[in-house]
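Hey, weird one. I pasted the IS21 family transposase sequence into the form twice and got a warning about non-standard characters only the second time. First submission, copied straight from the form history:
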Amino acid sequence: MLDYKDIIIKHYALSLSGSEIARQLGVSKSGVNDFLRAFDKCESISYPLPPGITNYGIAELVYGSVPGSGGRNESIEYPDYEADARLMATRKNMTLVFLWNRYSKKCAEEGKRFYQYRQYCELYNKWCEENYETAHFDAVIAQKMEVDFAGQTFNMTDPLTGEIMTIVVFVAILPYSQYIYAEGMLSTKEPQWIEVNNHALDYFGGVPALVVCDNCKQAVTVNRDWIEPELNKDYADWAEHNGTVILPAKVRKPKFKSSVENAVGILEKGLFHKLEEHQYFSLEQFNRDLWKELEALNKEPFKKKEYNRYFYWEEEKLELMPLPSMHYEYMERKTAKVSSDFHVRFDNAYYSVDKAYLHKKVSIKASSTVVRIYSLTGEYLCEWPRATRKGQWSTNPNHLPDTYKGFSQWNGPYFIQKAQLVGKNTESVIRTILKSRPYEVQTYRMCLGILNFTKNYSNKALEECCKQAIALNKQKYTFIKNTISVIADDLGVAGYRHSVPSKKELVRGGFVMPPEASSIDTLLSRSKFLADQMREEVDK
């Protein structure tokens, strides 16, 4: 039982807050504040206290019964706390409010008296203390930061492609002040994981001694016994850079990171509902709304504390370790070959490299925001902002030769000539695609992809597909890719390339041609056709 006399004297005579009293006595802050509120409302007793009154006497006047006397009012239906605790442990987002509403409704239907919500919660906590062996961790100022992902996700529509993308929300909290940080992410890979952890430290204004994380693959590789977990190398390097220690939670033991679990619950049951009402077209737009709501939440007064999260955070940030002068930067590494379009492909995006490295291998080092390209000997070549969407092109015109159209095998006339061998519709689509980007070299891969369909499908199928693309004004590689198989099926055997000749028909060192292919008329006609095409190109 609490020392009620000591609490009253410290509060009224020494003007100490409930939080300070709880800290001095080593008891629950909510218990001290609840008692002070009940004492203020009690009409039978007030400060100064009557001479000789005991703690039991104070409790009987304030609460109507002596704690621990077993004097429970038997006329009130006792809740089934064992079943309630089971639901709280197994059902996602289950709350005591929901369970109390169900309990009170059932009692009302049966004509029985029931506990009010406040009494219901107090008895539930007491039941848990008596029936469950739980570990309780008192929050120590500046000791740790807890991090996790929220279970709820959001949708974002790419304004350029119309693609629906998923936003995952990262959540971090300082348990002492309960100060919360959150950020939306389109990718949860290691570079983005490191980045949001950096942002959390910036937001909190310092580094805690410990970082308690979930067992996600971005943070922990193996955590079988919790004693010696294997950390993700990059996350371990991040911790060493910042002078902190990673402490993974026990597997399937949410109590080891109860503060962030509670923070996730607050977000999902509160401000996330406001965000759900909006449609987002960029991650920046989503985070702008999230941070606005988060600032209001952190400055909202506590229900059972005197101040708000922001107030206690201002106290806590003074005790945090200082931030390092520079962020830890995660670097992905890869070797790639500069293609005929003077670009390298990295993470489904394309970056130009100087013409001197055409067809040579280069080394790529990329952070979450920057892509740096080096020669294999370590010479720095160029740097690009990291692409934010698939298929994005980054081209420096100085990387291209002045006459790049005729510089390599891949050029406009080369693809047009190949398309003419298929048909006029294919040629028209190729010409349109060549003009569809700021730099022609950015279209070469799409042209090559379209013409390569003739390896599996007939020229007739590709011609018909391009004809439909022109009619629908969808002269794009993706339309051809998604349509040609259907057209080939409709054409039957004529939609596909002929089967490979049997081994008996093959001639070692050569290939089989029909007799008419080598006739003088065919060769002259082909020569005249190519000469006319070259003149047309020169005239243009």
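That's the output from the first submission. The warning seems to come from a hidden character in my clipboard, not from the data itself. The longest strand covers residues 144-157.
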